[in-house]
Amino acid sequence: MKPAPFAYVRAESFDQVFDLLDEHGDDARILAGGQSLMATLNMRLSAPEILIDINGLDGISDISADGGTLKIGALARHSAVLESEDVATHAPLIAKAMPHVAHQAIRNRGTFGGSVAFADPAAELPAVTRALGATFVLRSRDGERKVAADDFFLGLFETARKDNEILVGAEIPSIPDGERTAFMELARRHGDYAIVGIAAQGRVDGDTFSDMKIGFFGAGDQPILAKGAMSALEGQAHNDDTVKKAQDALDADLDPMPDLNGPAEMKMHLARVLTKRALAELAA
Ligand SMILES: Cc1cc2nc3c(=O)[nH]c(=O)nc-3n(C[C@H](O)[C@H](O)[C@H](O)COP(=O)(O)OP(=O)(O)OC[C@H]3O[C@@H](n4cnc5c(N)ncnc54)[C@H](O)[C@@H]3O)c2cc1C
User: In whole angstroms, what is the distance from residue 240 CA to residue 237 CA?
Assistant: First the structure.
């Protein structure tokens, strides 16, 4: 299929972006890597008046680490995030997730910010950033505001970004000393969107869990922080009873939607399986 007609502007400055966003509001779309946007246009799931291409803007594609915070610019390509030593050192959970984000050709164009702003509940990065307690930086003509990942993802493809704002980056707390990570997903083929996935980080002293942060994707209408499972694990030793308590807590934490992959019950089952495997990996 072909998209409905639209205007296209390659923005040369943030002011130009803000002018166009003010003029067109919800009828404008930011164009980053285009790997999700162009598909939605071609399928006519969306028919904006204008695409505002931000690929010419300076200063929002860098990745850096400073003072216990990893900063990833919105325009950082998935491939750059995958290859970044700063990401591997300060946010190994993101490094583990990146090879699962689509395929190489898509990772060469797709961007960190595009993935976060698109807020696909089956995507890896929204769930990982939620698990890691990331903060997103949104810029408008009035300046910048920061929104915690917990408050950013509002629902199915819905975020707290306002029509006059552009996502410029994310700030992610560096992994504390001694914390471990586990990332797993079940997909029909490597690189496809996951049916269900888990991203976990926390401390395991001996075999006892603490400070666990567990994100799920493909398990609801948005990326999910599994607070019930996290609290069920606090101070508990890794054994069958603890695993079962964490799995049982998922009934309240998750709300998967049936889709072409299968019914909600199947996804709940897969989420329990992944929880058991991820806890075993963390405790190993
Ligand atoms: C075949 C295929 C398989 C894929 N598999 C996966 C997968 O397994 N996991 C996964 O996570 N993703 C997957 N993707 C999606 C891919 O990761 C996309 O790159 C990503 O979701 C969007 O990034 P983008 O830069 O291409 O954004 P775009 O497509 O340009 O934009 C996506 C949306 O975000 C908005 N947007 C983009 N950047 C900004 C910004 N800075 N500020 C405000 N709004 C912005 C756009 O307006 C648009 O609404 C797949 C894509 C394809 C085509």
Answer: 9
Q: β-pairing, 63-66 with 196-205?
A: unpaired
What is the reported pTM?
0.97
Please write the tens of the pLDDT for every residue from 101-123: 999 999 999 999 999 999 999 99
Alpha carbon distances (Å) from 142 to 23, 24, 55, 152: 16, 17, 22, 19
Show the tokens assigned to 260.
Answer: 């072409």
| Lookup: tokens for 194 | 């996951």
Whole-angstrom Cα distance, residue 45 to residue 67? 42
Ligand 1 atom nearest to CA at 126 = 11
What is the arrangement of strands in the sheet containing 63-66, beginning at the earlier edge strand? 63-66, 69-73, 166-173, 135-140, 143-148
- Domains of the chain, each with CATH number or no CATH: 7-53 (3.30.43.10), 63-173 (3.30.465.10), 181-283 (3.30.390.50)
| Secondary structure of 158-191 in HEC code, one letter for each residue | EECCCCCCEEEEEEEECCCCCEEEEEEEECCCCC
pLDDT tens-digit readout, 197-234: 999 999 999 999 999 999 999 999 999 999 999 999 99
Residue nearest to atom 3 of ligand 1 (CA): 102
What is the side-by-side order of every strand in the sheet holding 50-53? 7-10, 50-53, 28-31
Place of tokens 């200063």: 59
Residue closest to 75 by CA, chosen among 33, 136, 18: 33
| 111 CA distance to ligand 1 middle (Å) | 7
Residues within a 6 A CB radius of ligand 1: 29-37, 39, 74, 101-102, 106, 110-111, 113-115, 117-118, 123-125, 161, 166-167, 191-193
| CB within 8 Å of 5: residues ≥ 6 apart | none
Residue 168: φ, ψ to 5°? -110, -15
